[in-house]
Design brief:
heterodimer; A: mainly beta; five-stranded antiparallel β-sheet; 11 strands; B: seven-stranded mixed β-sheet
Amino acid sequence: KQEVTQIPAALSVPEGENLVLNCSFTDSAIYNLQWFRQDPGKGLTSLLLIQSSQREQTSGRLNASLDKSSGRSTLYIAASQPGDSATYLCAVRTYNAGNMLTFGGGTRLMVKP
Amino acid sequence: DAGVIQSPRHEVTEMGQEVTLRCKPISGHDYLFWYRQTMMRGLELLIYFNNNVPIDDSGMPEDRFSAKMPNASFSTLKIQPSEPRDSAVYFCASSFPARRNTIYFGEGSWLTVV
């Protein structure tokens, strides 16, 4: 059974700092990996999607990398801003799990002005 | 597009009562998912549908939970009878097959059972 772990569970940084969020998964036979953002009281918004054949994806100040063989992904946020404060979740779609996403527990990020 | 629409946004009910949560997926999407989110267990997939047909309901915790999708634009998740441990945020999400990797979430139904 696929298990997804995110470290750290919470992170507080000053504005302007570059930061890295980590995601690891136990079954490397994945179809793709996705990073989401969740604001308090809201649903999840997809940030980046990396197919299993890709190494990274970029969107603005966000860069996500994937090392499928080691079961790891990182989300890099450059020049963090208070508006980046949210919970970030990674999720993987595994080959033997149909169209189901398995989510990590999330990293709660606070960027202080 | 209005996105995935869920109702009610918040519900407080007494133990033993029936709870019905509703979802309208994005038009044209033929995958629909029901998730539950709690502090202890994070996000869990309860059930998902493809073309209105339940594909995998292995995440449904017990027989008190049931889900239906009578047509492409509407789904319900019902809990009967409700218990305090059912208190959670229930999310509905939908996706389109050609771009099935992109999944869109509703804003959730916050359920409290007292």
